[in-house]
Amino acid sequence: MENVKKTNIRIFKKNLILLSILSVVSTAPVVQAAETYWNNANGNNQFFDENNWSNNSTPTLNDDLYIYDTGHQTVELSLATVDYYTPSLGGDNNHTLFIGSDSGNSASLKITSTPGNYQSTTYISGSMAVGSHGGKGVVEYHDYIFDASNIEDPEEHAFTPKIYLESLSIGSGLNSDGLVSLTGSGKSSSEHMMSSSAFMVRELHIGTDGGKGVLHVDGSNIEAGSMYGNDRRSFSLGQGTDSGIAGTGTINILGGGKMMVSGSAYSEGAIGAVIGESQGKGTLNLSGSVMKNSETIQSQAVFAQGLEVGVNAGSLGSISVLDGASLSTMASNTDESNISAYIGVDNGTGSVLVSGENSLWKASGHTSIPYETNEVGHLSIGESGTGSLTIANGGVVSLGSTGYFYRYNDTGYSSYEPVFDNSILGDLYLGNQVNGVGTLNIGGAEGHAPQMVGSVEVNKIIFGAGDGSIVFNHTDLSGNYTFTTDLVSSAEGKGTIKQVNGITEFDTDRSLFSGKTEITGGTLVVSNALGGSMSIAERGTLAGTGMVGTTTLYNGGNISPGAVFSTSPQTLTINGDLTMQSGSHYTVNMTTDSALENPYVSDLLQVNGNAYLYGGGVTTQQDGDFTLYIPDSRWHVLSATGSVTGQFDKLVAMPFVNINYEYDPQNVYLVVVRNEANLCQRGMSSNECNLGSNIDGNTNNPGNGDIHDIIVSQPSVETARQSFKQLSGEIHASAKSALLEDSRFLREAVNNRLREESGSEGGAWAHTYGSWGSFNGNNNVADLKRNIGGVFIGVDQQISPIWTAGVITGYSRANIDNKQRRASAERDDYHVGAYVKGQWNNLSLHTGLGQTWHQYSTDRSINIPGLQDRLTADYGARTSQLFAESRYQIPLTSTITMEPFVDGAYVQSYTQSFNESGGIARLSGASDTTDMFFTTIGSRFTQQLTLEGGQTAKLWGTVGWRHAYNEVTPDANLNFAGYSRFNIEGTQLSKDVAILEAGIDVSLTKETTVGVMYNGQIGDNSTDHGAKAYFNWRF
């Protein structure tokens, strides 16, 4: 292991010596008397072909080399290896290779590389200028990853670049246009695959002196800077001139590409890199990542010796770190303040955007080689210009320290591996100097669409002597986003917090902040102390249980103590004065607690100063948007240690209570009084009035938040009406109509059986049925739907030549739906009965009686303002009936008969008392009995048929009219717990009903008959349609 360490130190020193002997030249070309230029005389476009140059010699940089114009062709510089080495462009390090020089010229150079076992270095002993003096130049290079598994000593070449330059300028000079495109396969994660920097340059300048330059790095690497002896800036992007000629520089890094800017570590120079200077415009775009052998390779840029973005008036610098890319900055070793990067310097404008999951900016302080102390870095946004930092959509900015440490793999290969440590965090400065304007945006910038939140990992945010601000413009409406960073004002009144969109919570002590907080949208929740002043404008809400400074609410602004989405009353403290302008709002949560001496508990604004009320409305709530206004209650909503001046606006008038304010010199109370309005209002139905009057007359439980208090708290007469409809328990009355109507199925089963021809001595039979019916509602009751299905079986025996007697039993199940009242019921029926029939020629008479036991299960839901409840009940009922029918058969032809009939039935139903289970809306019902008498007249027509197999069949149909006597509107006597009884009517039975039947009977044998039929009833208030099937067996 010791030998490996020595070998690596040797390699490192070797590279430092190599870099130290190189010097930098200006990219501005000075044409020599004997200039060497490209003429492509051989026509093969090969760079190293001596015949393609004006001096017919192998090109060197002992003089400047010019590729002025290549037309539509491209010069090819081949890096094909020969014995592991590639050709180089020698020279004295003081001259430049110009590609696309002078106005109107356009030149293109393509550097080709061969993938293989090893790739050595091409040394260009000088500089390269791509697009200069008004010309247009393009350089393209594809960087291959090479396999180092067969190299005897791979660590010897660990830091070797593929092309080494003194200086690279792209787009230098007025109207110049330069493009360098480096593409490659990205960094390898294999132990034996190595991809060093495609380009290593001591200085890199893009878009300078009025030129336009673009560097495109896709899956490749470039390194700029020197470790020794360079007192000039190693990197500039978008640099203008003192005369105001702007340059425009752009760098795009994607596909896992990397740019490393090492700067001037040991010189007395300033910052090692600048983006946007002297009225220039510089843009660095970092985007995305790639997967290599299951490893994520981020597109990244590293600035190891400090960074300035947007320097000097008129300059624009910007950096975008998007979609999982990475930016690393380290403070210059000459910067004693350990500022990793300055955004907006000397009246320039700079901006940084970090957006997207896994997008990261790591900012560090002074960074050293192993075994030396590495320091925590800081950031300055708006140092002495205008700077902004936007963190959105899961992006992260973290301020810590970075050290370079040895990394060894299984083969012994070692490298310097940067390790970022944010266990100790640095500080973020906003508007550091007097003329600095610095903004931190969480989400989107102010005036732009809100974005998802990003994270800033810093020790504290310091608002400097300039104008610093934090903008919260995000989409988080869950109430779970908490901003935990400490905020410090460097001087009294410095710093602005702007809440624009989303819900943001401050849960730590920020009493050291003395600036101003502006809420213009969304909600700011303060759960601890926040110093400075507070203003709340339209669409903005201040919430929380902490303490804020002097607060002013403007038109449309809202203040609401407590947590968001909570209706639990809390206290919010104003440590100063409170001013509420006209149109502002105070949302008060209210509740009752009977365990307290004063059971009426509400939110409280505790003002440690004076309260100035220039209007402003109070909105109260307990459950969502509903407030329970308990008559004779008194709620304490504001207290001031100074005085209360002015009044709130009047509250919205309520139909059944009056809500007023009560003021004393230091307090405001909200007082509720029951007014004179009756709960039974004009236009209400009888059911609504019966219930309303009953609630109005209740004197047993006032003020306890029961049904009475909920109803008198309704915001309108209409909501009270709708509440009565759901509270009334109408299903219990309407179910009786269905029960009386359904008594007919037992009678119809018996009648259908006894219409068989006489002459049999007896038999057994079965009868199944299903029916779907509805009862019409009116302004008092709701529609009712019922479906039922069941079966009857019976046996009978002829007991004399005239008389036949029999018995019947059966089961049925009905479902009843009172949808408009949010209620339903299920009913199980158990039937028994007996009957007797007499036959005298064509005249027949039969009579019978029946008894049915019913079991109800009812289900009601209440959803009204202030009350949500579910109520269920199980109770029994029974039906008794006596019925008789007489008919006379008249032959019309040999196969057709007519059979007029008349019948009557007396039905009595009894319903047991019951008690619902549920909340305060549960009802109790009294037992009662309902009597009804029905008569029916009609005629049945029958036609005899003989089928092909010899069987006989009958087609038949019936028309008739049924009339109901007595009261056809059932009712129920109900009461709430502790209340007196009230009467509720149900849906009506039809007084008159038309009966339609049609069927077919088939004799399978002499002893057996089967049949099916349709049964319909159409009445003045109900309809019912059903189908039946039956089987008869004669003994």
Automatic annotation (TrEMBL):
**Where is the organism placed in the taxonomic lineage, from the top?**
Bacteria, Pseudomonadati, Pseudomonadota, Gammaproteobacteria, Enterobacterales
Give all residue intervals belonging to the Autotransporter domain: 757-1035
Which residues, if any, are the signal sequence?
1-33
Q: What GO cellular component is one of the record's annotations?
A: outer membrane
Organism this protein belongs to: Budvicia aquatica
Q: Does the keyword Signal apply?
A: yes
This chain belongs to the protein called Autotransporter domain-containing protein
TM stretches of this protein:
none
Q: Which SUPFAM superfamilies match?
A: Autotransporter, Pectin lyase-like
Listed A to Z, the keywords are: Signal
Q: Which InterPro entries match?
A: Autotransporte_beta (IPR005546), Autotransporte_beta_dom_sf (IPR036709), OM_autotransptr_brl_dom (IPR006315), Pectin_lyase_fold/virulence (IPR011050), T5SS_PEPC_rpt (IPR030895)
